[in-house]
Structures are given as C-alpha cells and as structure tokens.
C-alpha cells in the first residue's frame, strides 16, 4: 500500500505559495519485499505527484528504521531536517518484586 497526499504552504506572507506531495506511508508485506513492489509503489507516487503539479515529493522515516532509510536513499531521497523530542513525563516505576 502507498498513501500520498498534497500539502500546501501556509497562507502567511513569509511563505512562498507552493504545493508538494507527501508520502504518508509505503508498506510492503514482508514476504513480498525485495521483489520491486516498493519501487513500483514509489514510482506510482512520483508519477501522481508530477501529474498534479507538486513541486517536490517528501516523506518521513524513523531513525531506527535503517532498511527503510537505505531504501529511500536508493530512490534519491536525502535528509533535509531532523525532528527531535524529549519526554516530559517520567518513566513508570519498575516493579521491585
């Protein structure tokens, strides 16, 4: 499955009016991987994005998902920013028993 959607820049004077495509998800069953399914899904996302006039195609991938990062890099994607977070709640106490 692949999910791709359009995103518009906010309508504030500091932003350039533009639309881009965002791949929300590409998922291939584990038994179908390494057979070109992911590349075919990506190609469909790319074609659609071009057809609707998107300026670029972007996606988010988790740092821990090394195989997905390598896959997207092989398709020409490059990291442009990093999102970081810090938990504000303490971890639950451990059970001493």
Description of the structure:
The chain has 97 residues and is an alpha+beta fold. Helices cover 25% and strands 19% of the residues. It contains 2 helices and 3 strands. Strands 1-2-3 form a 3-stranded mixed β-sheet, covered by helices on one side. The termini are far apart. The mean pLDDT is 93.
In a few lines, what is going on in this structure?
This protein is an alpha+beta fold and 97 residues long. Helices cover 25% and strands 19% of the residues. The chain has helices at residues 37-51, 66-74, and strands at residues 2-8, 19-26, 57-59.
Features:
single chain, 97 residues, alpha+beta, 3-stranded mixed β-sheet, 2 helices, 3 strands, 25% helix, 19% strand, flat
Give the ordered list of helices and strands: EEHEH
So how many helices? 2
- Give the helix proportion (percent range): 10-25%
* Unreliable parts: none
Q: Characterize the main sheet.
A: 3 strands, mixed
Distance between the termini: 45 Å
Shape: flat
Average the pLDDT over all residues and give the rounded result: 93
Give the total of beta strands: 3
Class derived from helix and strand content:
alpha+beta
Spatial sequence of strands, sheet with the most strands:
1-2-3
User: Radius of gyration over alpha carbons?
Assistant: 18 Å
Strand content: 15-25%
